[in-house]
Amino acid sequence: MKTSFLLAALLMTQQAIATDTPAPPDAEKREHRVQAPHGAVRDDEYYWLRDDARQDKDVIAYLEAENAYVDAVMAPLEPLREALYEEIVGRVKQDDSSVPYRERGWWYYTRYETGRDYPIHARRRDGEGVDAASIQRANEAGDTTGEQILLEVNQLAEGKDYYSVGDWQVSQDNTMLAYADDTSGRRQYTVRFKNLATGEVLEDAIPGVSANVVWADDNRTLFYIENDPETLLTKRVKKHVVGTPVSEDVLVYEEADDSFYMGIGRTRDDAFVCIQVESTVSSEMRCAPAADPREFAVFAPRQRDVEYDADHHGGRWVVRTNQDAPNFKLMTAPTDARSRDQWQEWLAHSDEVFIEGFELFDGFTAVEERSNALERVRLIKPGGSEEYVRADEPAYSMGLSVNSEADTEWVRYGYTSLTTPATTYELNVATGERRELKRQPVPGYDPERYVTERVWAEARDGTRIPVSLVYRRGYEKDGSAALLQYAYGSYGASMDPGFNQTVVSLLDRGMVYAIAHIRGGQEMGRKWYDDGKLFNKINTFTDFIDVTDFLVGEGYAAKDRVAAYGGSAGGLLMGAVANMAPEKYAVILSQVPFVDVVTTMLDPSIPLTTNEYDEWGNPEQADYYQYMLSYSPYDNLKAQAYPAMFIGTGLWDSQVQYWEPAKYVARLRDLNTGEGTVVFRTNMDAGHGGKSGRFRRYRELSEMYAFLVDRLGAN
User: Keywords of this protein's UniProt record, alphabetized (predicted)?
Assistant: First the structure.
């Protein structure tokens, strides 16, 4: 029976300052058994920390007591934290703006003003002498002549603890704006409408939706996705006619299978509006003419273990699919195709090349690929001739940028590396001319002072794991340096080596930064992902540990000065390696960590659970239950010495609920025999992505970095 947790929490705050360790609740408060399948019963002494409503006073007091403990631990490091914060924000050009792109007679861009947290989304009308370069020059000079502001997010965010605009779309006639905003961080949005001619925000407001909206050609009908109020899953596509009651919105499509996510969009040629549903292992599209979107026809019926996405341009469909092609291939189909039998192979499958995406142009096609753990862009021209966009460094990240118009010879792409700030180029496919449109300005940063490497570590099963490294020039590989090793390793998400200006503060203190491209991502193709999920999940964890051993063995770091960092599913990775090899890490940084795998995956009411059975397994099945139980960080905590840890979460996180790390830390405190400090910070007004605003999040990061730098002796 739950008693006065408020009193316990207050006592814990006092003891935190006096003893450097928060006190656990009394034993009688911790009696809880979780019924599991297959006749199992699991003890979960901290289950009481779950409060779906986020209103339980005792739970809130407990979290606030943990925050008070963090404050006490971090108080002596305030000068270091402030120095790190000033360094980080000092590398931000505060009045920066994005590269403008042209669409339907207007140039669109986003800009920031000095000292302000949020962006301004704006546009300028196309005309003689108006292009991307002239608009950039005007923005740099502070000249707003001819600018029309679409959304001044700083004003919209005033008085709110959290605010984010997730998506915005302008109607086809350029007169109406629909945008989706979130005021809690829970990724539950409200769609609103703005008349761009008058500036009036209409009374129409559609709550409880995802951040994904599409206009029909009549410029009055908007398609949006309604979320399930309990699981928060994307469930229904509806259409709203501007100026009519939301209660009259028409249901267009409802997805019955909770293992699928949903999205909506327009094809490249604007001819169709399409609904895309995707699970981990299959997908399905249904499309309708944008001019008359009353009937949505299935493009190709869903089939387990077959994924596809399609786009329409030039009188044909181009389809990317993994049917009989694990690394995907490209197919073509006629406009009226309704069966896979009508697809014809265009770009064949390769065991060595993973096709990630494509963009259709009038005279060529740009294909995003991965090969040997590096990204590249292949340009396919009429007649079948091909060329690759060149890269300038051994480890880099490259991908298509905003290419809003198809009738051009220029393709825009982004390029970055661990030493090169994000750069937007455009390449003329006909002449080969390359123009740099913008390089992310980083005041005080000189790329010549830093070096990036790509090395390969051998895993225990003989697999070679790519690793991207960066350090300050002059660093000596003598086994004395401190190292921060980062990875993710889930969902097929590839962690590419892009520039991170915050890491520069660590490099300048003599640290090495490494990204371990472990299995579970997709850096080496689809097999790399398959070898790091379901019954192969253990590879993700052992790869990370083996990379650490390799880097220490090669002299990149001292064995007692290694830190590990991961977030979300990467937080699961952190929890697993902490249990499996705690002696190899001096510090572990874990943000919004997915650490209570079994309990969460047994609860279909929690967002993401049902959609992720094909990622982790369904624990209702005995073999999956036992396998997940074997690595779940919360279930495998034991009496041993753990590293110092900084663990963070957001109270309103809808992806990984706050109680997972809260329970994990509480049990860890009971079992930890080591002397490493463990702190747990809950942002009481934030969700999965942390606080909103570009500077507020740097406050959070500087606190974590101060903890890291101090524990590694790198200050």
Answer: Hydrolase, Protease, Serine protease, Signal
